[in-house]
Amino acid sequence: MHYDCLIVGSGHGGAQAATSLRQNGFQGSIGILSEDRDPPYERPPLSKDYLLGGKTFDRILIRPAEFWTSRSIDLLLGHEVVKVHAKEKQVLCADGATYSYGYLIWSAGGRPRRMSCPGHDLQGIHAVRTRSDVDRLVKDLASAEGVVVVGGGYIGLEAAAALTKLGKTVTVVEAMNRVLARVAAEPLSRFYEREHRDHGVEIRLETGVDKFVGSEGRLTGVLLKDGVTLPADIAIVGIGIVPCVEPLIEAGASGENGLDVDEHCRTSLPDVFAVGDCARVKSAHGLRIESVQNAHDQATAVAKTLCGELTPYSATPWFWSNQYDLRLQTVGLSAGFDRTVVRGDPNTRSFSIVYLREGAVIALDCINSVRDYVEGRMLVERRARVSPDVLANNSIRLKSLALA
Ligand SMILES: Cc1cc2nc3c(=O)[nH]c(=O)nc-3n(C[C@H](O)[C@H](O)[C@H](O)COP(=O)(O)OP(=O)(O)OC[C@H]3O[C@@H](n4cnc5c(N)ncnc54)[C@H](O)[C@@H]3O)c2cc1C
């Protein structure tokens, strides 16, 4: 079977690439080829409303089924691509199916990083990446009491908040000396640690899992490196993802932790683009960014390029996380900051953290503070230079600083 544009992956990037191609007048055939058996759905609710039962699967679909058929976008679900023949412009799936392409958009995201310690394959140990992961977890939770969450990143903390709401006894185990250490400054980490503890979550820092303990093939506890054993019916492992890029790397694409792409999301292979969690835009941030916005905007840029409007990807990153009644919104990338300013009082549960590098505002984390998020974006986009004292003064609107 041949597609003028073949998209690998039916997540946020893949779905948006197909949608945007049609919106921009692409007339050729489009196929979305995915390992996932479900039609494109939103991933963020998996650790939030969907896990809590507040949203059914229908409500997290990116588009209703008719959307894809009415736009002649073929959903080719349940096929894992295992090989790419770049010269022949062909992909081979694990089940033997082959597809040829005019353009290939690789939006295969990542798979959860797994643990390799003893007991890692016991029943009761879960990841939270796909709808079926969460369905399995929810089924298992019905008879569970103690849950250990391994990893204090956003997904682990969101899962901890949701499970606490469900009445479970939750412990978060984090190897670093604070949660969110990879992505946020210390004041934000400490704020979230306090919030989780106030909601009954136990947070254990600077330790890791030595082994998962079980009986008759099922998890019964988690032995930590500091010698403590936590009783547990369920463990959720949220220690990051490994980008799904092997078939393209084997085909000769350059990259390592993700596929290297230029500002148009082109890989080093002809007519092969990569977007979303698996792509690393060298010229922009040199990072792989894992967010819906990034996947969406890169996919949109590629679609425009394929429709004749060469479009570089240059969007300002943003991200959100919901835990309890706290809505965190971030704008910009804080990596490389050399100073932070706390704006407002964390005790009010509405405040912001401004990240600066060499005197310029590069990012904000805003907790229950939509106004700072909206107005702070202008400061980030202009790389505004504002004195820390002024930024810390919560009575001065960020908008006025951006316009000054
Ligand atoms: C639980 C959870 C909560 C999140 N919460 C937030 C949030 O609050 N805010 C936010 O901005 N971001 C959030 N994210 C991150 C966000 O969902 C991702 O950044 C986004 O989904 C990336 O889109 P993508 O298209 O690159 O990859 P994905 O959405 O992961 O899609 C990848 C697709 O590729 C398929 N695939 C993989 N390998 C192959 C292969 N070899 N052959 C065929 N198909 C393949 C997969 O089955 C999948 O369909 C969350 C992620 C998770 C898991």
UniProtKB/TrEMBL annotation:
Residues 318-402 form the Reductase C-terminal domain. Residues 3-299 form the FAD/NAD(P)-binding domain. Its EC number is 1.18.1.-. Pfam families: Pyr_redox_2 (PF07992), Reductase_C (PF14759). Its cofactor is FAD. Keywords: FAD, Flavoprotein, Oxidoreductase, Plasmid. The keyword Oxidoreductase applies. GO terms for molecular function: oxidoreductase activity, acting on NAD(P)H. GO terms for cellular component: cytoplasm. The keyword Flavoprotein applies. This is FAD-dependent pyridine nucleotide-disulphide oxidoreductase.
